[in-house]
Amino acid sequence: MLYHMVVARKQVLVQLEDDLVRELDSIAADAGVNRSELLRRLVRNLVEAVDEAEADTELIAAYKAQPEDPEMLAVLNRLAAETAIDW
């Protein structure tokens, strides 16, 4: 098990207003983490959200470049209806 794994980190100076720091500290306390861990999680979530948005944009562009074939969709819908499980 890797309980004491060393993770390379870079210290980054960020200036925030006092009221924002108080709010962050309150949220961190409620989550049971320190301010740095909270900010790491927030940044990680932001990066993932941006990546997902970019992937969505690429997928939309791909569908616009080669739209779905209406006949193929009709076949797939019929097949899905014929093989659907009765709940």
Layout of helices and strands, plus pairs?
Elements: H1 18-31, H2 35-65, H3 70-83
Helix pairs in contact: 1-2
Describe this entry's structure for a reader.
With 87 residues, the chain is mainly α. The chain has a domain at 28-83. 68% of the residues lie in helices and 0% in strands. The chain has helices at residues 18-31, 35-65, 70-83. It is elongated and about 60 Å long. The model has no long low-confidence stretch (mean pLDDT 91).
Summarize the helix and strand pattern as letters. Answer: HHH
The low-confidence parts are none
Distance between the termini: 43 Å
Main sheet?
Answer: none
Strand content: under 5%
- How many helix segments? 3
- Radius of gyration from CA coordinates: 23 Å
> Count the strands?
0
User: Structural class of the secondary elements?
Assistant: mainly alpha
Q: Overall pLDDT, averaged?
A: 91
Shape label? elongated
- Helix content estimate: 55-70%
